[in-house]
Amino acid sequence: MPARDLFAWRAFDALTARELHDLLKLRADVFVVEQACLFADIDGRDPDAVHLLARRGPGGPLAGTLRLFGPECRGGPAVMGRVATTASARGTGLGRALVIEGIAEAGRRFGAVPIRIGAQSRLEAFYAGLGFARTGDDYAEDGIAHCTMVRG
Fold first, then answer.
1. What gap in Å lies between CA 85 and CA 63, rounded to an integer?
2. What separation in angstroms does the CA of 33 have from each of 28, 38, 113?
3. pLDDT in tens, 82-119
């Protein structure tokens, strides 16, 4: 698992131009190119999220990212999404470390609230291993099977 100091949380307005470029490129590489899925990644919600950036060593290339939203109402869940790692980082434990850090940051920022994700259904076991449980049937999002999962 990567060292904690390789993670950086940024509010949208605090992202540098380079960080924003790297984050959007990583997401496009994974969600649009690798998964051959045309969808509007820039959905207008990034300014409302905090973004986790994971680098391969100090000053290294961006290897993973996710975004985290606070609860929309009292007692509601925080929402984690756009979890992505580069192809070369897969199998290294970085994806797991990203989600664990996302869970920890949700606790630091919002207290003991549930966390909801819209997981690709093929990754259900991965998220279940991190304490998330499916809450409904599969649904199609941009032509890919997803399921809603909640932790806590």
1. 6
2. 6, 8, 34
3. 999 999 999 999 999 999 999 999 999 999 999 999 99
Q: Cα–Cα distance between 71 and 60 in angstroms, integer?
A: 32
Evaluate if pTM is beyond 0.90: yes
| Phi, psi angles (nearest 5°) of residue 93 | 95, 0
H or E stretch at 147? strand 144-151
Instruction: Give the SS3 label for residue 29.
Output: helix
Spatial distance between the Cα atoms of 58 and 142, rounded to a whole number of angstroms: 35
Domain 4-151, CATH number (from 1.10.510.10, 3.40.50.300, 3.40.190.10, 3.40.630.30): 3.40.630.30
